[in-house]
Design a protein that fits this description.
By secondary structure, the protein is mainly alpha-helical. It has helices spanning 3-17, 20-28, 35-52, 58-67, 69-88. It has one domain (3-88).
Length: 89
């Protein structure tokens, strides 16, 4: 394996580890944990994505957020649902 092939394999590995699907799986794997814990997992994954893909500028961050919008909105809806339930009590 050449150096270029090794770099390509590492890039593929990191890209698949921090894809929106992989991030969603990571967050959903801890559905039994409190909402704050799952939000922390999501934010950590997004930040680590920024570390491993350091060329991320504003547009790349916006793209990462839009790619993960389903999970973000799911957690927001869940948070508002919990907040409404607490207020009713």
């Amino acid at each position: 394996m050449s150096i270029e092939e090794a770099h390509a394999e590492v890039r593929i590995g990191w890209a698949s580890s921090y894809s929106p699907e992989a991030i969603a799986r990571a967050v959903e794997s801890v559905n039994h944990k409190p909402l704050g814990y799952r939000i922390n997992i999501l934010l950590s994954r997004l930040c680590f994505r920024g570390i491993y893909f350091p060329q991320m500028g504003r547009f790349a961050w916006l793209k990462a957020i839009t790619e993960n919008r389903r999970m973000i909105f799911k957690l927001i809806r869940e948070g508002f649902g919990e907040d409404c339930t607490r207020r009713r009590r």
